Amino acid sequence: MAMRLAVWWVRLVYVAWMVPAGLNHFIQLYPQPTGNQDMSTGVFLALIDSGMFTLVKAVELGAGLMLLFGWRVPLALVMVLPVSFTVWYWDTELQGWWTPSAIYGWGVLGCNVFLLYAYRASYKTMWEGYAAPRWPWHKVQPGEAQS
Question: Which secondary-structure segment (H or E) carries 68?
């Protein structure tokens, strides 16, 4: 029971970061932090100039809503993992390991990793052995494993 409550709490904390952070790009809720170090500002501006920042924010918002409503949670966690890692890297390595920003970065990545672990049973089939490719028109024969 305690684990279920912990998973719900971490999901809500994670959603409380992702939904406003993703939505803020499309509807400004607060000023977007751009970094206070040369490298972090450079990476941020490169993401903006390349258009990748819009994709990142769309993934944050989409995955956040999926987690909020409990729809395809394992998929949402995998979708947002690259974003979480990038946030962690930006907040720790580029902003500074001993800054308040680093705590935020560890929190974001920590929530994602904790939830991936909590939903680990959902990923079990990804680690199974060989799965034969199937064509859409292939009919499964009786006694044949469906993959």
Answer: helix 52-69
Residues in the chain: 147
> Residue 123 carries which DSSP code?
G
Global confidence as pTM? 0.83
Tell me which residue has tokens 């809720």: 29
Q: Check: CB of residue 90 under 8 Å from CB of residue 35.
A: yes
Packing angle, helices 100-118 and 73-89, rounded to 10: 160
Domain ranges of the chain: 2-25+46-123
- Nearest C-alpha neighbor of 94 from the set 30, 13, 36: 36
> 96 and 104 in contact (C-beta within 8 Å)?
no
Q: How many CA atoms lie within 13 A of 22 on its CB side?
A: 21
Angle, CA 108 vertex, CA 103 and CA 112 arms, to 5°: 140
Q: What is the per-residue pLDDT across 86-95, written as a single tens digit (0 to 9) for each?
A: 999 999 999 9
